[in-house]
Amino acid sequence: MTLSEVLDRVDAGVAPSLELLKAYCRLPSISAERRAQSETAAFVRRLLTEEGFEAREYSTEGGPPVVFGQQIVDEKLPTLLMYEHYDVQPVDPIDEWRRDPFDPIIDGDRFLARGCGDTKGNLIAQLLAVRAWRQTVGQPPINLKFLVEGEEEVGSPHLPAFVDRHREILKADGATIEGGDHLADGRPRLELGCKGILYVDLVCRTAKVDQHSSYAAISPNAAWRLIECLERLRAPNGRIRIPRWYENARPPTAAELRYLRKTSLRVEDLKEYWGVRNLRGGSDSYRVVRTLVYSPTCTICGFVSGYTGEGTKTVNPAVARVKLDFRLVPGMRIEAQLEKLRDHLRVEGFDDVEIIAHEERLQPSAISLKERVVRAAIESARDACGRDPEVWPWSPGASANGFFNEVLGVPSLLGPGVSYDGSNYHAPNENIRLTDFRLGARHSAAMIGRF
Ligand SMILES: [Zn+2]
């Protein structure tokens, strides 16, 4: 009975919350440009305080403040930690926006503004859920904590130090980490973790200087040499050729596959959307989604060598550079995979290829379907939306789950949230659907009740 009253209060509170979201989205908190950081942190702190949280801003060394708030109802009750970020992506190409990205508007069932999906809308929906509980029974039924940082979009450089220093206040029994989108029909999607990324540049230098290409008959070519190297990394079928690469990759469980069989991903839709003739996994949607989730990848993100301008220039380049991302599945570790890559290139004789590993490192990590936070998220999706959520064992993208699961020791999942797959994260015309905002807030409210 109480829960249905809470959910009614969520529904009644949607309109004023959308006004609050507009105010939040008017703050141009682009972390890459260090814009509006202190105002936005202060805004978030006020939002939390207004909903009964004991909230404050913590300064970081050289970064924007981290906002933390807690509402401890009873030490004996479980504690749910919610992580979001108040920063947003840059807005270029600005010409492709239908309007000013920081002048939010509601247009039919869409709310349009930079950051509304990623992740300002989540915070406002979660606070609406908290308010509904307070209006119904005076306080939330569990302890709640919010961690809202301002640098997620630039790789959270100051978050690890913050967490290290404030481990005690971040203790919780489960965490929800941004994300949380909906399918076309409004069904929520939960992801129980993420893949990780090892990102490297490979630089091949075969000579001191570029040469006239007439010397190609006698002199090495850096681009060809790097291509030979790349062919030793990955087979045409996508399989990675580095020895022991798959050694620790976590295999699927029967329960995970049962959920994956029910996913809504359709091969035909993806092929049409991307204009791609064939997907790995074939024409069977279940096989494709299984491949998408469980396959580590080696991706050429960019390749530069020689002359790439207009017209012709006959040159035999001395240097070639490729950017590679290796997506790793849970069980693998970035450092160990990097060592395997180094060993492989050495054994294969590519001493002329330098490996430059990038510092931003998100480890792969995922939790089990049996975790309390997962059970609560699944059951509450039924309360909030009247049907089962879609559940992925982990996201094909990278996220902060590893940080929460392993560094902080708090089991975490992605969702509930307010976006959908047309939300245009990081792209022009970022938007959410009002129906998803309402469902996301209901889901959070029910989850607070179930946890
Ligand atoms: Zn983002």
Structural overview:
The chain has 2 domains: 2-192 and 367-450, Zn peptidases (Aminopeptidase, 3-Layer(aba) Sandwich); 195-249 and 296-357, Alpha-Beta Plaits (2-Layer Sandwich). Helix 1 (2-25) packs across helix 3 (116-137) and helix 3 crosses helix 12 (434-450). The chain starts with a helix and ends with a helix. It has helices at 2-25, 37-50, 116-137, 159-165, 222-231, 254-261, 267-274, 285-294, 334-347, 372-385, 401-408, 434-450; strands at residues 54-58, 66-71, 79-85, 105-107, 110-112, 143-149, 174-177, 181-182, 189-191, 193-205, 211-212, 297-305, 315-316, 319-328, 353-357, 365-366, 390-392, 395-398, 412-414, 419-420, 431-433. 35% of the residues lie in helices and 22% in strands. It has a 6-stranded mixed β-sheet. With 451 residues, the protein is α/β, with parallel strands linked by helices. The protein contains 12 helices and 21 strands. Bound molecules: zinc ion. Zinc ion is lined by residues 89, 118, 153, 425-426.
CATH fold descriptor of the largest domain: Aminopeptidase
CATH classification, class level of the largest domain? Alpha Beta
Outline: globular
Helix content: 25-40%
Query: What is the count of helical runs?
Result: 12
**Ligand list:** zinc ion
The CATH homologous superfamily of the largest domain:
Zn peptidases
Q: Summarize this, please?
A:
The chain has 451 residues and is an alpha/beta fold. Helix content is 35%, strand content 22%. The protein has helices spanning 2-25, 37-50, 116-137, 159-165, 222-231, 254-261, 267-274, 285-294, 334-347, 372-385, 401-408, 434-450, and strands at residues 54-58, 66-71, 79-85, 105-107, 110-112, 143-149, 174-177, 181-182, 189-191, 193-205, 211-212, 297-305, 315-316, 319-328, 353-357, 365-366, 390-392, 395-398, 412-414, 419-420, 431-433.
